[in-house]
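Let's study a protein:

===
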Amino acid sequence: MRFASCTPDDIKFLQSLIVDPKSANKSCFDKKKFQNTAVITSLNSQKDRINEIGAIKFAKDNNRKLHHFYSVDSIVPPSPASGGRRKKYIDITKIAPRLQEKLWRLPPSAGKDQIAPRLSLFMGMPIMIRHNEATELCITRGQDGTVWGWESAELTDGKETLKTLFVKLNKPPRDVKFNGLPKNVVPIPTAIHGPLAIRTPSGDYLSVKRWQVPALPFFAMTDYASQGKTREANLVDIGRSRNHQAVYTALSRSASADGTAILQGFQPTKITCGISGHLRQEF
């Protein structure tokens, strides 16, 4: 697969791993090991939508209520070099309440750094850390865990914003212990991010600084973010994978074929078309 040289037998085998929604007996979702497993997908927009749906479903399944925590945003004038021909910035100096509501409704992928305008959480929910906050304490980008608790403050309109999120790490490289907290529970404080180029629905951009905890729900991740992980249960969507490398990255996270499930069909040509000699020399 790394050489995009899969045979018809290889394709047939991969197609046998596709989830059949019409067959209740054969669906991978009937297997306990796939429940609440984060989906590996290709696009950040897909990841955001799966995370949104996953949080709502997980809360419903556990009879819990989602708590919404909003970012604090402020306008930063874009530098002359940040515009260019590709990005057109909206020229404003202050975020009006109506505009702020619109910003809060945007997905994390509206900004390059994936900092959520609104985090919807509850105790025990899967979460992924987005930034390297303290590598020596295992608070690193891509480390997953569950929500253990939080400290919040109230905004002027009554909405809540996070001050600190407490995360119980899942299988950290080593155990960590903070005073007053259980083993492997770490604090992640709100941090300032930016300037962020936030893409609005009109296609124009806003340059903002954002105060928010650098974490996201963990019901999905991109193939890029999955690198380095080995998963006993590997649920993947390769229908929109950009190339054979993205397909390989997603599927090679599996510890076994039995623990692999593909959510929908895919284009076999992406992994059968071969690669150039130049690219082959890299392997």
Summary: Residues 184 and 219 are 21 Å apart (CA to CA).
